[in-house]
Amino acid sequence: MTIRAETSADITAIRRVNIAAFGREDEANLVDRLRGQAHTFSFVAVEAEAIVGHSFFSPVTIAGNCADELLILGLAPMAVLPNYQRQGIGTLLIQHGLMTCAQAGCHAIVVLGHPTYYPRFGFVPAKQKGLQCEYTVPEEAFMVLELQVGALATCAGTVIYSPEFKQLE
Domains plus CATH for the chain? Predict the structure, then answer.
């Protein structure tokens, strides 16, 4: 299993992974709309020369009190082909993504996901750091991970995703 940054040759396979994992085209279309924007990161999991997983990170902003120079990313979507799920591929994608984002100077990552899955990577409910999601979601499902300790100490407010996410509602 290899985890690496996407290349232009991967775009069709990434669409296929997201459509298969989510059972619809919305997330694949979201990635296509966000791809190439500043501070986005896209990673693929490759097994036997086939792309079997994908993770995507894109910038979010904080409406409220937060330093403008903080780079905060949202992890979404994260997808693994159904036949490859529950084999640790998602874990590898997330670990690689978090490490790469930290090395690139990202201060924190937010995720809207399963509250029993993401804490293993260090995510905590965003409410503990004074943040809330712009969407109506269960508090325990919206989480944050500081990649730089104390980065969010002076932040409080609502996390706003790129406008492209509104098409998922």
Answer: 2-168 (3.40.630.30)
